[in-house]
Amino acid sequence: MPRLALRPLSLVAILFLMAAIVGAQAPTPVDEEQEIARTVVALLERGHMAHPEINDEIAIKWCDNFLKDLDPQKYYFLKGDVEEFKKDATDLDDQIRQGDVSFARKVFDRFLQRQDERYKTVMDLLSKPFDFTVDEYLVDDPDKIDYPATKAEADERWAKKLKFEQLGFRMDGSLKPEEVVHKLIVRYRDRNRVFHQLDSGELLEIYLSSLTRTFDPHSAYLGPKNLEDLLSQQLHLSLEGIGASLGSEDGYAVVKEIVPNGPADKDGRLQPDDKIVGIRNDDGTETSLVEKKLSDVVRHIRGPSKTVVKLIVQTGETKELKEYAITRGRVELTEQHAKGKILDSKVGGRDVKIGVINLPAFYGDTMAILRGDPNAVSATVDCRRLLDEFKAAGVEAVIVDLRDNGGGLLEEAKTLSGLFIDKGPVVQVKDAVGVKPLRDEEDGTAWDGPLAVLINKSSASASEIFAGVIADYGRGLIIGDASTFGKGTVQSIVNIGEQSSRRREKAKNRGALKLTIQQFFRANGDSTQINGVAPHVHLPSLRDSMDVGEGKMDNALKFQKVAPLAHDEWNRTADDLVAALNARSAERRKDDAGFQKLESRIKQYLDRKAKHQIPLEEAKFKAEFIPDDEEKAAEEKEKKDKRAKKKYVEREVWISDFYNDEILRIVGDYLTLGSKALAAAPVKAADVAND
């Protein structure tokens, strides 16, 4: 699809698209959910670092958030609906203290009504061909428009939206017109099913998270299912099941990939594109999984290790029904672990080995590490092993790639930073009590040679702590986008069940409150909040021009400073050295065809973005169309072709393209121009303080 300046759906709206439907009424809550609501309010006011009071002012913001979460681009609700709901806004703070979440049901009932009306409109519109010669425009910024006043106005808005989506497919050119229409019919049929299958717990999750985000963008209520996924998959990188990645297509759970070395992979029968249509129960009966929520399908398939699940599968190749009994097991998500690669490069006419660590997250199983479990999952342990391998192979420089690394565990950020510095402050943490430094206390380093860290606008949180340490200590070179994401806050996961006064309730999974409790600061005293970490060498990027980052989010906390801390100075990024590296890179990029195309795409994007509207007449649309980067498009096609032949596609550590090739040239310049600085010993913190 083209990269046009449409505002993306909110995170909660995207979650809708991942689930799957039936009745036409909002789900009814149970007493347990009312207790959860009261507990969340108490925890917010008592534990959030801002110590907020939930009052009428907050309630008005909360109402706006909830409406935006359900309908971010103003395609569903009518103006009259919104005016009606806003009359009740100042009552929400009083209602929630009593555990009353009836407003959420009232609003969602209306949303489902409007969704059904829009779904009928979509199907009617897609049954007839569009005229792509009409000179009309789609406004791409919802802040520039009001909610539609009438159904006719809403229908007109939907006609333009569908026209835009069809034009996107037409630019791609890989589908026939009738295939495009079918794809959109399936998309909106799936979306309709998703909305109707939302249960009361999921609605509560959206409603309470709309409240928490009035204080900052990262506090949220996690329902029981999302809490399980956060702890097992995102942080511990493991789960118990069969090891298959699923997607939802036209009411079916479709196998997308098989996790390497998982039970399904070892069994060998389940393949990508197979549809899991049911489960054979122990008593011989069948549980149908057709048109079920994807999250529910997943939980039918998952289960304790050494238990058997009998899948009823429609094969992707022959379409026949087969039954596979697969023994569940522990699935290690090893493709999401740190990965390394040694690159052969040329520097000043000589052969040089450069080690690359691709780190997608700061993962770890904290409890297992504290128990001394030798098999505990840890980003730091994995990176130390890779560094040992690099040293044994004789690499001369190391690149740590944190692009698209959204963060993870604070402790892992601290210990992984310690692999590259010899003791000292890593980060300062500020809470209600004061400011406390977190230090690397381990003697020595795992790598003291030349270092470069790669960042982009999606490098966030723990990534920014690590990049900040490397920058503050002058330990290595930061290369990439104009800054990192700018998330400088710490969240704690507070289990809701454990807050109950009743002992038997404490063990229940009632979800958790992800609560912002601290703000962190670099050793130099700067917060990473809003500003992020800037690179030494900036390479142009389309992301720099996008509305991405903490500063673009509603209710983000402000940038602050605290007193700096004494720390070692490695002096490997002196101003004159950095200026020389930038000058050489800029000179090369002027004559590089890849960067010339990128600069053209950035200009085209900015011109398009400034207009706040997209032409729907095909010739004008094509003139303003911003095609995907050709190398990236070829890369995605190659991945798709591989996936068609294999059960899974391994994550690439390093891809040779014009951008990455320039990074290697910068590192090469760093080794030659900075050779004296790189050979010098660091100045210890005590000596720095005495200067």
Write a structural description:
The protein is built from 24 helices and 21 strands. The chain is globular. 37% of the residues are buried. It is α+β, with helices and mostly antiparallel strands. Strands 4, 5, 6, 7, 8 and 9 form a six-stranded antiparallel beta sheet that branches. A six-stranded mixed beta sheet has the order 11-12-13-16-17-20, sandwiched between helices. Strands 2, 14, 15, 18 and 19 form a five-stranded antiparallel beta sheet that branches. Helix 6 (102-126) runs antiparallel to helix 8 (177-197) and helix 18 runs antiparallel to helix 22 (658-673).
Fraction of residues in H or I helices:
40-55%
Poorly predicted segments: 1-25
Would you tell me the overall average pLDDT? Answer: 89
- Name the CATH homologous superfamily of the largest domain: 2-enoyl-CoA Hydratase, Chain A, domain 1
Distance between the termini: 56 Å
CATH fold annotation of the largest domain: 2-enoyl-CoA Hydratase, Chain A, domain 1
Described by strand count, sense and barrel closure, the largest sheet is: 6 strands, antiparallel
- CA gyration radius, whole angstroms: 27 Å
Q: What's the overall geometry?
A: globular
| Count of individual domains | 3
Q: In the CATH classification, which architecture of the largest domain applies?
A: Alpha-Beta Complex
